C-alpha cells in the first residue's frame, strides 16, 4: 500500500509541471538554508565600507567576486540572502507547526463535542478575524519585543483560526457518519475517536492548509522585519534587507531587488506546491 501511494505521488508530481517546479524551488531553498555555512561565498556579517554598494559581478583585486553585489555596509548580498533563507524557513515552519497543532486540536474538539466549548472558541475566532491580522501581530510584537522566539509564538498563536474552522466543519459532517456511530456503539473512547478515526480523515485538508499558510508566514515575517519589528540587525533577513535597500533603490537597484526576488520565488514555489498537494490529496 505504501509503495502504491508513493508511486501515485511521484506520478502526480511528474505530471504536474507547476507542482514539480514548486517542489524544486523549495528543495533549493531548504538545501541553501541547511548548507548556508558551506555554500555562502562570504561572511554575511562582515562589513567593509570600501566595498559598499558594489554592483553585481564586481571583482576586487584579490579575486573575490560579489555575484549579487554588496550593500551599504559592504556586505555580500548573495551570502545574506542564503543565510536569510534560514530565518524565513525556521520561523515559518515553527509558526505553522504551532498554528496547526492548536487549530486542529480546537477544530476536533469543538466539532465533536459542540455545546459551550464550540460557542466560546468560534466566537473567539470571529473576534480574531474581525481584527486586522497585521495590526494584531505588530501590537503584540511591539509589546513582547522583537526576537525570533516572540515572532514564532505570535504568528503561531494568531494562525490557528483557519485550521480550526475547516477541521470543525469537516468533523461536524464526519461525526454523523456510520463508522463514528459504530465506534461509539462499541464503547471506543472519545479520545480514540478524535485522534484515530476523525484526525486521519481531516489530515489531507490540514496538510494543504499548512503548505499554503507557510507562504503567508514567510510573508508576515518579512513584513515585520521590513517594519523593524522582526529579526533585528545584523542577522540577515529578507524583509530587513528590503527595508535597508529601499533608500538606495534608484542608485543601487540590486540592493533591494535580489532579496525581493528571493522572497517572491520562495512564496511562489510554496504556493505552487500547495496547489499540487490540493489536487493530489483533495480532488
Jot down its keywords:
283 residues, mainly alpha, MetI-like fold, two-stranded antiparallel sheet, elongated
Provide structural commentary.
The protein has 283 residues and is mainly α. The chain has one domain: MetI-like (MetI-like fold, Orthogonal Bundle). Helices cover 74% and strands 1% of the residues. It has twelve helices and two strands; from the N terminus they run αααββααααααααα. The protein has helices at 2-15, 17-34, 36-39, 77-113, 115-130, 133-144, 148-158, 160-174, 178-185, 190-226, 238-245, 253-282; strands at 58-59, 65-66. A two-stranded antiparallel ribbon has the order 1-2. α2 packs across α12 (253-282), α4 (77-113) runs parallel beside α7 and α6 packs antiparallel against α7 (148-158). The longest helix has 37 residues, at 77-113. It is elongated and about 80 Å long. The two termini are 20 Å apart. The model has no long low-confidence stretch (mean pLDDT 89).
Summarize the structure.
The chain is mainly alpha-helical. It is 74% helix and 1% strand. It has one domain (2-282): MetI-like fold.
Count of domain modules? 1
Coarse morphology: elongated
The CATH architecture comes to Orthogonal Bundle
Q: Which band does the percent of strand residues land in?
A: under 5%
SSE string: HHHEEHHHHHHHHH
Classified by CATH, the class is Mainly Alpha
Distance, first to last CA: 20 Å
The profile of the biggest β sheet is:
2 strands, antiparallel
How confident overall, as mean pLDDT?
A: 89
CATH superfamily: MetI-like
Number of helices: 12
Kindly name the structural category: mainly alpha
Radius of gyration: 23 Å
User: What spatial order of strands do you see in the largest sheet?
Assistant: 1-2
Helix content: over 70%
CATH fold group: MetI-like fold
Report low-confidence residues grouped into runs of 5 or more.
Answer: none
In total, the number of strands is: 2
Amino acid at each position: 500500500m505504501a509503495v502504491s501511494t508513493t508511486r501515485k505521488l511521484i506520478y502526480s508530481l511528474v505530471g504536474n509541471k507547476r507542482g514539480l517546479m514548486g517542489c524544486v524551488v523549495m528543495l533549493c531553498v531548504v538545501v541553501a538554508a541547511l548548507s548556508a555555512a558551506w555554500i555562502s561565498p562570504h561572511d554575511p556579517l562582515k562589513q567593509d565600507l570600501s566595498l559598499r554598494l558594489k554592483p553585481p559581478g564586481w571583482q576586487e583585486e584579490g579575486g573575490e567576486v560579489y555575484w549579487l553585489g554588496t550593500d551599504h555596509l559592504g556586505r555580500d548580498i548573495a551570502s545574506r540572502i542564503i543565510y536569510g533563507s534560514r530565518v524565513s524557513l525556521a520561523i515559518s515552519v515553527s509558526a505553522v507547526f504551532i498554528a496547526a497543532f492548536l487549530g486542529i486540536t480546537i477544530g476536533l474538539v469543538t466539532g465533536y463535542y459542540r455545546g459551550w466549548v464550540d460557542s466560546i472558541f468560534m466566537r473567539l475566532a470571529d473576534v480574531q478575524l474581525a481584527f486586522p491580522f497585521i495590526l494584531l501581530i505588530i501590537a503584540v510584537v511591539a509589546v513582547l519585543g522583537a526576537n525570533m522566539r516572540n515572532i514564532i509564538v505570535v504568528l503561531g498563536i494568531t494562525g490557528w483560526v483557519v485550521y480550526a474552522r475547516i477541521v470543525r466543519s469537516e468533523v461536524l459532517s464526519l461525526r454523523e457518519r456510520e463508522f463514528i456511530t459504530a465506534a461509539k456503539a462499541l464503547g471506543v473512547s472519545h479520545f480514540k475517536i478524535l485522534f484515530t478515526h476523525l484526525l486521519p480523515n481531516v489530515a489531507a485538508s490540514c496538510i494543504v492548509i499548512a503548505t499554503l499558510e507557510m507562504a503567508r508566514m514567510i510573508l508576515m515575517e518579512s513584513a515585520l522585519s521590513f517594519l523593524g519589528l522582526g529579526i533585528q540587525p545584523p542577522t540577515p533577513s529578507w524583509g530587513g534587507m528590503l527595508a535597508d535597500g529601499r533608500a538606495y533603490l534608484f542608485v543601487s537597484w540590486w540592493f533591494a531587488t535580489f532579496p525581493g526576488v528571493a522572497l517572491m520565488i520562495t512564496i511562489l514555489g510554496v504556493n505552487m506546491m500547495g496547489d499540487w498537494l490540493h489536487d493530489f490529496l483533495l480532488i
